[in-house]
Amino acid sequence: MGRPNVREGRGDVDRLSGVTAWPSITEQVYRRVRTLLLEGGYAPGERLSEVTLAERLEVSRGPVREALERLAQEGLVVRVPRRGTFVRRYGRTEARELMELRRVLESAAGRLAIERASDAQLEEMRALQKAVDVVIEAGSGYPPDKDFHQAVVRLAGNRELERAAGLVYDQLRLARSLSAQRGGRAREAWQEHAAILRALLARDGAAVEAALAAHLAAAEAAILASVAETDVDHHGLERGSSPVEPIGRSR
Fold this sequence. Notes:
By secondary structure, the chain is mainly α. The chain has 9 helices and 2 strands, in the order H-H-H-E-E-H-H-H-H-H-H.
């Protein structure tokens, strides 16, 4: 079967997951590759060939190149001159630094949420927690579509804080997807979230700070136990690693 003739920006139908080309093909490629990364579709440090991705998604190399550049800006992949584009690898130092930044952002979000969140928004949080309760009690893991922390950050009413936190969450999600996970953490996290929610509902700033600190300390211990003790260089790659092929062959 021949390659489809994709004309970007015209609203044409592309064969990328059977989705019409609106949003643009570039946006669809970005979303698809990002999802593959965050779901562990590639190994840490794996080289991402523009040619291979373009063939897999049945698009031209241009949208792939733009998507990889955007993902590099978000810290999910690394682009090394004359070597190529690679899935970012996380060592313990990188994971710890991300968790430190997460603590700063969420502490600020918690303080702002106490001041700014409406009663209706807090009730929505209660409903969110109840929905998670049902899943946890059924013995399933923590549902990925019920992101408690993103909901807390939204309560702060600060879009820039929400954007920064989102980038951190995505990098931590990638780090977790590339590593083994300790079982049983879902129920612990659920109980810690319940303590945070109780403090928010009471609009008790000190209690929110304490509950967040306890939860994030446990979350940091869990992720540090799961990531490799690999020595990672400034590119986000394992020291001494070599590319599968030079980047010039993928263009």
